[in-house]
Task: structure prediction
Amino acid sequence: MSLRFFISNTLLMAFFIFLIGFGWWCIIDDGKWIMSIPDEQVTTIMGAFSEVIIAAVIMLKVELVLYSKFFISSLLY
Result:
């Protein structure tokens, strides 16, 4: 795993999180969309977005741990 691979994956995840957040902000900002969606679907949509964001954060943390172990082991040898 190289530094370029790590940085590109991190930037890609940050970009997707930004897109999800921006899309959710557009849905909330435009009240017509929210009012036309039934409450059950709004709850489902909010749950799906939060799960994606949580998964991205967990992936980023795992990637950071793996990269730090790789970096430290490369310094030792």
User: Anything to note?
Assistant: The mean pLDDT is 68. Helices lie at 3-29, 31-36, 39-76.
